[in-house]
Every structure is written in C-alpha cells, then in structure tokens.
Amino acid sequence: MDLKKIIAVTGKPGLYKLITTTRTGILVESLTDGRKMPVSTNQNASSLYDISMFTYGDDKPLREILADMYKHYNGQKAPSHKESESVLRTEFEKFFPDYDKERVYFSDIKKVFQWYNTLVELGLADDQPEPLEPTAEQSESSATAEETQP
C-alpha cells in the first residue's frame, strides 16, 4: 500500500493524491472527483504514511492498521463510517484491540473507516504495510540500477 503520496487535509473531506510541491505549498488532486487544489504551507496536510494512532504502548502507524483492516475484511469494504459509534468501536477493536480508548476519539475511528473504504474502492489498499526503511533486497536492486546507469 503506497501511502506516501496520499494526503489528508485538515478541514477538507476525503483523501488527496500529492501531485507536486509549489513555492507556496503543494498541489493535490481529490481521489474521489479528480479536482485539483492548492494547499498552502499554513494548512495542515498529512501523508497517511506518517499518521499513527495511540495505543497503550508504542503508537501504531496507520499503514499497519489499514493493512490489518484489509486482512480482517478479506480485501472487502468495511462498515460505513456513518454507522453508530457502538458498531464502529466494536469493529475497530476486532483488528486494533490495543488502541488507547481515551486518546483515540470516535471522529478518528470514523476517519479510519472512511479512508479504508475509499482506498478499497479505488483499488489502492492491500495487506502489506510499507516498511519504514527499504528492505535489503530493495536496497540491493536500487544500488544495482544505479550502477548500470551511464
């Protein structure tokens, strides 16, 4: 799941694909309707790759939570983010039982379900979270590619 270029913008619904950086911020494209819009540097935009959620231990990256959801729902859509709080919390605990129930708000849980369903609809979800650092195999293949370039 390549989440490095998938962006959530505070105050804007949905998810966006990073197109390019500009002098004043970034240019993004909506994943749902394809509209492009600038996001200035004073707006809060976060890559899904960089988001994590509170647990009672170490924070868990969203990319791992989404991969766990994909496995739990066998690649199918999850319940709608419009379901009741009790339904979504119960479902959330099935694949993320150690989330910090005091610091993870219901609005956060709704976003996870909404984002997951959007990614599944667009075919961008899978059960493999991106590693924090390239694996040895990926490093070797990129080094080999660099060596062969003139």
Folded structure, characterized:
There is one protein chain. With 150 residues, the protein is α+β, with helices and mostly antiparallel strands. It is built from four helices and seven strands, in the order βββββββαααα. A hairpin with a 6-residue loop joins strand 6 and strand 7 (60-61). Mean pLDDT is 86; it is low at 134-150.
Q: What characteristics describe this protein?
A:
single chain, 150 residues, alpha+beta, 5-stranded antiparallel beta sheet, two-stranded antiparallel ribbon, 19% strand, globular, disordered C terminus
Give a concise summary.
The chain is an alpha+beta fold. The chain has helices spanning 62-72, 85-95, 106-121, 136-148, and strands at residues 6-9, 16-22, 25-30, 36-40, 45-47, 52-53, 60-61.
What's the structural blueprint in terms of helices and strands?
Elements: E1 6-9, E2 16-22, E3 25-30, E4 36-40, E5 45-47, E6 52-53, E7 60-61, H1 62-72, H2 85-95, H3 106-121, H4 136-148
Antiparallel strand pairs: 1-2, 1-5, 2-3, 3-4, 6-7
